[in-house]
Specification:
By secondary structure, the chain is an alpha/beta fold. The chain has six helices and five strands. It is elongated, with a radius of gyration of 22 Å. The termini are close together. 20% of the residues are buried.
């Protein structure tokens, strides 16, 4: 919207340097899925009804974080893609056996209980409570690197959104992180509460924009 034209975020590390704390708050609310703050469109120009399908809001790594909460859905999907037909048949047979036992108990005792007969491999996997193994971080930058490495290993397609990463990293670390993000074909947006415009070398690996106190709507 005027006075600024909308721009497209590409792969790599994108830094938005926000002068106004209110703009930062509004952006984070939008990225968390609050559609009352604005609208988000996909690459085809279609309105995204569910922002979380396009964006993974990591937030501030200095706060509480859980790799399993962020990436477990993607990890389970990736695991399911590795099952072949024979392995799925084994799972299905085991499910059928369990279903028949529970259903018989409900019928024999005349209990007002209905057992679902829907075969759901993802639900079966969750019984085993898989968790993502990540190294114990020694500092905040280690958390950032673990986020990027995990997202790369899972071939994460959503845009990762983090805030204030420039407060926890040196310029040299950010240079390396930017190259690593690009290498793994990830898209990372960092929202910064500063009026300093960040540059990443001469190669244009990082893309930075400064937002002043003007009202800006992204589309």
């Amino acid at each position: 919207m005027p006075p600024l034209e909308p721009f497209e975020l590409g792969e790599g590390l994108n830094v938005l340097s926000v002068y106004s704390a209110q703009i930062l708050f509004n952006l984070t609310q939008l990225l968390k899925g609050d559609m009352e703050k604005g609208s988000l469109f996909d690459e085809k120009g279609k309105l995204c009804e569910k922002v979380s399908g396009q964006i993974l809001f990591i937030g501030d790594v200095a706060g509480e974080y859980s790799f399993s909460d962020w990436f477990m859905k993607t990890a389970l999907t990736k695991m399911l893609l590795n099952f072949d037909s024979e392995q799925l048949k084994i799972l299905h047979d085991a499910f059928e056996m369990g279903y028949s036992v529970f259903d018989a108990i409900a019928l024999d005792r005349m209990l007002p209980v209905t057992v679902s007969g829907e075969f759901d491999p993802k639900a079966i996997l969750s019984i085993y409570k898989p968790t993502l193994a990540v190294p114990n971080p020694e500092n905040f930058y280690d958390v950032l690197q673990a986020v990027i490495d995990t997202a790369g290993a899972l071939n994460e397609k959503r845009m990762l959104v983090m805030v204030h990463i420039t407060e926890y990293s040196t310029q040299e670390q950010l240079e390396y992180l930017s190259k690593d993000i690009k290498r793994q074909n990830l898209q990372v947006l960092s929202l910064e509460r500063t009026d300093h415009l960040f540059r990443f070398g001469e190669s244009g690996i990082g893309r930075s924009w400064y937002i002043d106190e003007d009202f800006v709507q992204f589309s």
